[in-house]
Design the sequence.
């Protein structure tokens, strides 16, 4: 039951990540790449599945490496490190991420598109290029996607001792919009425009609501642990 609840949480984290600003941009680029095969529905679906597989493999490899490294520490050492540094860093980090989501500050997070050089290499691989694209985009972390993965998914994976299952579910969640659009492209190009409009509206509201929550939580943690105020 605990693992099932963690898996549901990991899937939710993946979906939230997928509609965050930077990952959404990479998913749009992926949809553009897959959409060029619109005349071949079977290839469109195959490319979508390979893209999801690429993202999943990248997150699993990273998750296994990180969890394996952290579990070499003794529980007492981990608790000590968390008590000493995590609460101090968490507040300012949440505020910065929240301000980024609210577009109060901006970071140069280029590379969310497909460069001409990379596009040629991916195209040379045919439909298998979607697999490479998924792996590259998964590892193209920006502040928000890094926060969800390193500060939400990894601690959850350590808690339930699941370095493979949770990153797998998370990876599927991050690629879910591309899978949906790949299916829509294969069925009807007109459906893509409608669905993309809905996703864009959800992303706009989700980003701002999440940003406000992050800023408020960050202020609370900063006042509580950085300034030792009794709140």
Sequence:
């Amino acid at each position: 039951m605990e693992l099932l609840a963690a898996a549901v949480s990991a899937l939710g984290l993946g979906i939230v990540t997928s509609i965050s600003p930077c990952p959404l941009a990479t998913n749009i680029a992926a949809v553009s790449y897959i959409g060029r095969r619109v005349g071949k529905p079977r290839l469109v679906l195959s490319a979508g599945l390979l893209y999801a597989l690429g993202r999943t493999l990248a997150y699993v490899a990273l998750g296994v490496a990180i969890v394996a490294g952290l579990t070499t520490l003794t529980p007492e050492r981990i608790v000590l490190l968390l008590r000493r540094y995590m609460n101090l860093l968490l507040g300012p980090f949440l505020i910065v991420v929240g301000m980024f989501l609210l577009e109060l500050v901006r970071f140069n997070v280029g590379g969310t598109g497909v460069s001409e050089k990379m596009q040629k290499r991916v195209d040379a691989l045919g439909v298998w290029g979607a697999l490479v694209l998924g792996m590259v985009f998964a590892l193209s972390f920006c502040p928000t996607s890094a926060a969800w993965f390193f500060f939400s998914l990894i601690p959850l994976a350590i808690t339930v001792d699941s370095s493979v299952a949770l990153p797998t579910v998370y990876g599927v969640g991050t690629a879910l919009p591309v899978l949906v659009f790949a299916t829509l492209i294969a069925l009807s190009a007109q459906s893509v425009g409608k669905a993309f409009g809905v996703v864009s509206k959800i992303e706009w509201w989700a980003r701002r609501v999440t940003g406000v929550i992050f800023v408020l939580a960050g202020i609370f943690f900063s006042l509580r642990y950085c300034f030792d105020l009794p709140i």
Q: What stands out?
A: Residues 30 and 140 are 13 Å apart (CA to CA). The radius of gyration is 19 Å. DSSP finds nine helices and no strands in the chain. Residues 108-113 have pLDDT under 50 and may be disordered.
